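Methods — Computational structure assignment.
A single polypeptide chain was analysed. Its primary sequence is given first, followed by the predicted tertiary structure written as structure tokens.
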Amino acid sequence: MIKKEELIAYMEKGSYKPMAAQELINSLGIDDIQGFLRLLNTLEKDGRIVFTRKHRYGLPERMGLVIGRLHGNRKGFGFVIPNDPVCRDIHISLDNMNGAMHNDRVMVRLNHSRKAHPEGEVIRVLERANNQVVGTFEKSKNFGFVVPDDTRIYHDVFIPLGEEEEAGNFDKVVVEITRWPQKHRSPEGRVVEVLGRSGMPGVDILSIIRKFNLPLEFPKKVLKVVDVIPQEVTEGDLEGRRDLRSLKTVTIDGADAKDLDDAISIDLLANGNYALWVHIADVSYYVREDGVLDREAYKRANSVYLVDRVVPMLPSGLSNGICSLNAGVDRLAVSVMMEVDGQGNVVRHDVCQSVINVDERMTYDNVRKLLQEDVPELWERYSDLGNEFKWMQELCDILKKKRSRRGSMDFDFPEGKAILDQEGTPTDIVRVDRSIAENIIEEFMILTNETIAE
């Protein structure tokens, strides 16, 4: 049976002219006719080949057609970003959208015009991106409609009478599209979830979660795997690992952080160089490649930090438990040791699987108060680590100056943090400035990444 890429390569030949299915079967000597017809159908649905009005198959680029992703605009027009990065974006007017919506994968026919920017018309939607839409429900006597939160979705969604669930006027809802838009008709849908009254505490965050389809719950099969993972490091886990529990080790994170995935150790050597250890939680020891946890993490891609919660990539039993470098308990890590001289050069390094035991869980605020404000009470509290914090500051300054000499750019922009009350209502927005504490972690992580890359 011929493969997809082999068929595409055949059509890419300069001598190829669009052929009917039977002509292709004869030309290629196909035995499995039904399988070949299914292959043609799949490639056509994917937009990799085109079935013409004359019932022939060819490549879209040979017919003046472009495949790409549509980016909508609140005014109704859009731009198609072609799959081919060499091609310029294509302007699509409102009249030429032909039922396509923001983020749909589409096929476009280029219009021949003298305008400087390419223009075109959507002739086929290959893949819909908005099966569900989050927005505000507005009700009239005989019908309702939903105004999408995403302004790049131009059309309001028409809700027939009886399809509004229990939504009231100005409720935030999730609507499922049941009929796609056409040239002069809005899409239709039905309300599948009422999130709450627009403007009420927590509803805006829930709207964001639904808009981006963020999974709040983990599948039962994932939780079952986590349930059998021990929450303490055992003797069997230490085999082949370097024991670094005697090192003075700290984590430095925000006060509300729960998943502590990196830690620092530092010492001043007899030759005047610094021995810097950066420890990263060894998640791969518990998340086996292509296992249930690995596939779930791959699907989620990353943890999402919202103003009032975290949507984690891994269940809390891992991210906040055995894989979090909590103080006072043994944890498995991958450790990088770097000997750094007074000019910021790494003269020697080593990488190993390790077991560590964090001495202190530090916050950015406390480290800042130690090193910038010189608060006596904190120096007394962390007297056992006084030298280590001073060495961290010295090495941070050395590394930062070296990066500056190399021409690095410093994106030190002010950040804001929303303060919520217990009901989730914003009460204040405070400015968050980057201090020596954040700089220490930033410089040490950059150095670690550079060392591993080299």
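Note: The chain has four domains: 4-61, 64-127, 132-211, 229-453.
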